[in-house]
Design brief:
mainly alpha, about 80% helix, flat
Length: about 110
């Protein structure tokens, strides 16, 4: 990993994580922030911008916004409560809707690039 001051990527990624962290804290709903993060990551990845900005927004902002660990904890809690149907439904919907959100973000950015 390049920590040099010349590129500033490390610092820019860290700075871009702060507003996403605050937004994540304010929304406080794992499913919603993960879907928003999937859409934004698909969008940013398909934009015709430099790799540096994709890293800043993709890793910094989207990485800080989404919560795989929180979702995993939520799934473990469903299993421990015996809510196996909700566990399967939550797992399936998060993955399916997340993929659709990435695809929609990607499609929107592709249209805007044209």
């Amino acid at each position: 990993m390049d920590f040099s001051l010349k590129t500033n990527s490390f610092y820019l990624i860290a700075i871009s994580a702060v507003p996403a962290c605050i937004l994540r804290w304010q929304i406080d709903e794992i499913f919603i922030v993960n879907i928003i993060g999937c859409f934004l990551l698909g969008f940013v990845n398909a934009l015709a911008i430099s790799k540096k900005y994709k890293l800043i927004f993709g890793f910094g902002f989207c990485g800080s916004l989404t919560s795989f660990s929180g979702w995993s904890l939520q799934l473990v809690e469903l299993i421990s409560q015996g809510s196996f149907k909700l566990f399967v439904l939550n797992s399936f919907l998060m993955v399916l809707i997340g993929l659709l959100a990435v695809g929609l973000g990607n499609l929107l950015a592709t249209i805007l690039n044209a």
